[in-house]
Amino acid sequence: MSKSIYEGLLDMAAFVLTALLAATGSQAGVAPTGQRSFYPPGLNHTTFISNASVGTFGGLYTAPASQAAPASPGDAYDYCSMPHPHAASYSLPPPVANQTTVSARLVYLEYLQRHQRRTPYNILPGGENQPYHCDNLHAHLYVAPASQGPAPIPVYGQTYSDPSNPFLATYVNGSCQYPQLTIGGFLDGYQHGRDLRDVYGDLIPSSPDEDGGKKIWLRSSNSALTQESAGGVLRGIWPDHNGPLPLHQQASGIDTVDQGFSCSAQSEILSTIESTPLWNEHLTVTTSLRNRLATMFDADTSSWTSTFDHFADNFQARLCNGYELPCRVQNQSECVTRAQADEVFRAGDWEWNYWWRNNANATRYIQLVEGLFIGEIVQHLEAVQQGTSELVYSHNFVHDGDLGPILGALGINALRWPGMGSNIAIEIWETSASELYARVLYSGHAIETIHGTLDWIPLSALLSILKPFIPEDIISMCQSS
Ligand SMILES: *[C@@H]1O[C@H](CO)[C@@H](O)[C@H](O)[C@H]1NC(C)=O
Ligand SMILES: *[C@@H]1O[C@H](CO)[C@@H](O)[C@H](O)[C@H]1NC(C)=O
Ligand SMILES: *[C@@H]1O[C@H](CO)[C@@H](O)[C@H](O)[C@H]1NC(C)=O
Ligand SMILES: *[C@@H]1O[C@H](CO)[C@@H](O)[C@H](O)[C@H]1NC(C)=O
Ligand SMILES: *[C@@H]1O[C@H](CO)[C@@H](O)[C@H](O)[C@H]1NC(C)=O
Ligand SMILES: *[C@@H]1O[C@H](CO)[C@@H](O)[C@H](O)[C@H]1NC(C)=O
After folding, report:
1. Ligand 2 pocket test: which of 92, 100, 102 has the largest number of ligand atoms within 8 Å of its C-beta?
2. Where are the alpha helices (DSSP H) in 46-122?
3. Which of 64, 117, 125, 243 is the most exposed place for a label (fewest CB within 10 A)?
4. Which residue puts its alpha carbon closest to atom 11 of ligand 4?
5. DSSP secondary structure code for residue 71 in this structure
6. Strands 393-398 and 104-114
């Protein structure tokens, strides 16, 4: 049977629409929104990097200079300011929301977050064409006797660039340290804390001093960045608190976060991981991009070209703090294009997924890098399980290099680079029948993993997922090669 003219026209219109959508690619219609942007189905493959029409796969990479970043639409992946639990999108676990299924209350929260946005770690070897401004923040560092006078003057570091310093020409002008939190990062942190207070206000003590401070545990790495973030986030949580708060840290030489303890087996297994055919394939598909950037920025060294860490770090710090992508200092008409930056970010995402999920040695790598800290979290959760926990709220200020392996241990379906302020909330719920359940949120939404969506699983099941990543004897594992 032949179609009517009218049906034919409809087919034609549908065809044109499909062609238009395909041609505009990720800019229109095709770009995934909301939670879908966290889980690119093609992330295991190097075509995710080389296929330019993937764009940013719905990810956002810009934020204003001196304001908090607006919440991303639908809580989409936002490298500059990752979504976090907030009242507008937070919902109770499905069986609790449906009160006929189960009645339960939140009894414990283990919260982990990366620091907020910042200046870069990596300055382009050929120098930077734009200054960085940080004079809108005071980087305080001083000591104060715990229980006697005198009180110190609260001095702060005021970074400046001395024109007579001959190294300035091939470094970066301005008033920042690299890295350091930016005003935008501080304000994002403050909003992050206010939103946690809104969502978890019934659980988090209204004062950190309640019960002599025994209900809370605040932990950070040794880096200034995580401490600087804590100051903003905790002010959002406790707007009326007066006085200082302890941020627990282990000694930097043996810290269990931020790769504090030394362990040669970590770098050995990383070289194994970075010598597979798949790893080399990702280098091959990015050869022309890596060569172009290396030439443009005098960056032809393996630390800049063997992974995308440095270029991605350098570019996001610009875009996430209200600046432009960099240009070559010696020729300001040679600038990084948005398409090049997008490819760098896709390659960065591919590498994070490869390191912590998609390589044959991922389990051992996670054990070596993050196993001790995973063990500390498991101890907190076991104390809740045994009914011996005085703590109700633990907040850890750490790094992407801590979030990545923990997300890998949880078995996340796809792992994009955990962006600024990315966070994991492990909620423990107690039912009216005294059973304990866990829900794990990643950047505000139940995490999607190889074990299913972790929106309501027995606490014992969560412990079974995590425990295989705790090393039995890290000291001998670190020594063996
Ligand atoms: C490239 O990406 C687009 C948009 O995600 C997708 O439709 C297309 O199938 C991809 N092409 C290849 C060769 O993977
Ligand atoms: C809520 O619970 C009832 C009783 O267990 C069940 O019949 C119903 O399907 C549930 N609704 C939802 C939305 O889960
Ligand atoms: C650094 O910035 C200052 C203030 O804007 C300017 O006077 C100076 O020329 C700059 N120096 C370099 C090396 O760009
Ligand atoms: C600067 O870069 C542009 C674009 O690549 C090029 O056309 C121009 O020749 C370069 N200028 C110099 C002086 O090298
Ligand atoms: C990607 O690889 C991981 C680990 O090899 C696997 O568990 C996962 O199912 C893969 N994801 C997809 C979408 O193929
Ligand atoms: C890494 O994985 C390969 C393949 O499964 C295995 O043969 C090798 O022993 C692993 N290496 C380490 C150090 O675990």
Report:
1. 100
2. 47-50, 94-97
3. 243
4. 331
5. P
6. parallel
- Cα gap 169→126, rounded to integer Å: 9
Does residue 395 have a pLDDT over 80? yes
Rounded Cα distance, 200 and 376, in Å: 22
| β-bridge partners, 234 | none
Q: What's the chain's Rg over C-alpha atoms?
A: 24
Please tell me whether the overall predicted TM-score, pTM, comes out greater than 0.90 for this model: yes
CA of 249 to the centre of ligand 6 (A): 33
How many Cα atoms occupy the beta-carbon half-sphere of 308 within 13 Å? 29
In whole angstroms, give the CA distance from residue 222 to residue 232: 17
Tell me if residue 377 falls in helix, strand or coil.
Answer: helix
| Ligand 1 pocket mutation pick from 37, 50, 54 by most atoms within 8 angstroms of CB | 54
Domain locations in the chain as residue ranges = 265-348
Tell me which residues have their CB closer than 6 angstroms to ligand 2. Answer: 98, 100-101
Q: What phi and psi values does residue 128 have, to the nearest 5 degrees?
A: -115, 140
Tell me the C-alpha distance between 395 and 196, whole Å.
Answer: 11
Instruction: Give the angle 404-355-57 at the CA atoms, nearest 5°.
Output: 75
CA distance 63 to 65: 7
Structure tokens at 299: 């960056």
Residue 446 falls in which region: left (phi positive, over 0), alpha (psi -120 to 50) or beta: beta
* Predicted confidence (pLDDT) per residue in 310-327, tens digit: 999 999 999 999 999 999
Q: Would you state the pLDDT for residue 133? A: 98
